[in-house]
């Protein structure tokens, strides 16, 4: 099992394909396992690196692990790219992973070539309604943990963001892995899950960016992508059908990647 030791943490990663590096960053309490189909498709045109973020799935979980931040995970992503000689990379981030990708581009601009942000979060100031919604979700997830145990948190989170039927769409082995990520979910959403950057800071990010929101997501999920697309100087906003679990290898993403690759 390939691992990289970065920032005092052992990270599990997988590589597929060759060529321009693409780094895939998963959402809250998730896993690179969820990206398997997308990684296979993306590997037809690039070198794809998918990894489990700290505290999640097959990567090491600090002990204790009660709080973490977007910055912690962006630091890990930068160090992983360095360890694998994969910078600058196109970075695709889903949900919380998109927030990590944005922070990576802000604080480590030389590690990033372009961004694909699939319903990311933003700062509390840019997306106050989304922040209030997440605060309420965190409170409900803590109630679930207290009532049903921490292993029930992942299913509850998936139900909140993607609908009650989304959990059953995952294979049984993936559900087992995600269920084990309950402590990571609480640490991520209970810590600094928001982006520590205002519109002026985001205006310094010069990388091409595709910001995607899903038509069927909760309306609060639309505020942050819209604010980011407005603040990022070289960004376009795209609305797609379906819910929060947006396909990282959709035709729209491939079209954007083709433009990035052709811009050398």
Number of strands: 8
Q: Can you tell me the CATH topology?
A: Rossmann fold
Strand order of the largest sheet: 1-2-4-3-5-6-7-8
| CATH architecture call | 3-Layer(aba) Sandwich
Q: What overall geometry do the principal axes of the alpha carbons give?
A: globular
**CATH superfamily, called what?**
Alpha/Beta hydrolase fold, catalytic domain
Strand percentage lies at 15-25%
Count of alpha and pi helical runs? 10
Rounded radius of gyration (Å): 17 Å
Stretches where pLDDT falls below 50 for ≥5 residues?
none
How far apart the termini lie comes to 34 Å
CATH class: Alpha Beta
Order of secondary-structure elements: EEEHEHEHEHHHHHEHEH
Largest sheet: 8 strands, mixed
What is the share of helical residues?
A: 40-55%
What's the number of structural domains? 1
Mean of residue pLDDT values: 95
Structure classification? alpha/beta
């Amino acid at each position: 099992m390939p691992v990289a030791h970065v920032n005092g943490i052992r990270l599990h990663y997988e590589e597929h394909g060759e060529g321009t590096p693409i780094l895939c960053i998963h959402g809250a309490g998730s896993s690179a396992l969820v990206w398997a189909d997308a990684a296979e498709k993306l590997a037809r045109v690039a070198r794809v690196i998918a990894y489990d973020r700290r505290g999640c799935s097959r990567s090491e979980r600090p002990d204790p692990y009660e709080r973490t931040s977007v910055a912690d995970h962006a630091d890990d992503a930068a160090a992983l790219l360095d360890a694998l000689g994969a910078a600058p990379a196109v970075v695709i981030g889903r949900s919380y992973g998109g927030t990590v990708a944005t922070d990576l581009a802000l604080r480590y601009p030389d590690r990033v070539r372009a961004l694909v942000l699939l319903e990311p979060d933003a700062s509390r100031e840019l997306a106050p309604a989304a922040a209030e919604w997440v605060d309420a979700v965190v409170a409900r997830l803590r109630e679930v943990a207290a009532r049903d145990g921490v292993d029930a948190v992942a299913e509850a989170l998936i139900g909140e963001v993607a609908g009650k039927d989304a959990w059953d769409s995952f294979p049984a082995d993936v559900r087992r892995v995600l269920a084990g990520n309950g402590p990571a979910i609480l640490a991520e959403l209970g810590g600094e899950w928001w982006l520590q950057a205002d519109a002026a800071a985001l205006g310094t990010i010069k990388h091409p960016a595709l910001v995607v929101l899903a038509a069927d997501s909760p309306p609060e999920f639309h505020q942050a992508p819209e604010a980011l697309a407005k603040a990022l100087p070289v960004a376009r906003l795209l609305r797609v059908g379906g819910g929060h679990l947006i396909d990282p290898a959709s035709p729209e993403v491939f079209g954007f990647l083709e433009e990035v690759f052709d811009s050398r």
